[in-house]
Amino acid sequence: PSAACCSNLRAQQGCFCQFAKNPIYGRYIQSPYTRQTVSTCGIALPHC
């Protein structure tokens, strides 16, 4: 991911649990692609 993408993810990091609990966005947070992207950006997904 680009530096801008990682920056946007870091800015929204505090909302990950809210996104995960939302039926619309939860599937995106649980996606293997999301996990790989945040890992590449050096961000840990929280355990909600």
Task: Tell me about this structure.
The protein has helices spanning 3-11, 16-21, 26-29, 32-40. It has 48 residues and is mainly α. The chain has a single domain (3-40), classed as Plant lipid-transfer and hydrophobic proteins (Hydrophobic Seed Protein), CATH 1.10.110. The model has no long low-confidence stretch (mean pLDDT 93). Keywords: Lipid-binding, Transport.
Task: Based on the model shown, name its key terms.
single chain, 48 residues, Hydrophobic Seed Protein, 0% strand, transport, Bifunctional inhibitor/plant lipid transfer protein/seed storage helical domain-containing protein, Bifun_inhib/LTP/seed_sf, Bifunc_inhib/LTP/seed_store, nsLTP2
Short recap of the structure:
This protein is mainly alpha-helical and 48 residues long.
Helix content: 55-70%
Instruction: Using the alpha-carbon principal axes, give the shape.
Output: globular
Query: Structural class of the secondary structure composition?
Result: mainly alpha
In the predicted model, the low-confidence regions spanning at least 5 consecutive residues are: none
CATH architecture: Orthogonal Bundle
Q: Report the span from N to C terminus.
A: 24 Å
Q: Within the CATH hierarchy, at the fold level, what is the topology?
A: Hydrophobic Seed Protein
Number of domains: 1
Beta-sheet strand percentage?
under 5%
In the CATH scheme, the class would be Mainly Alpha
Beta-strand segment tally: 0
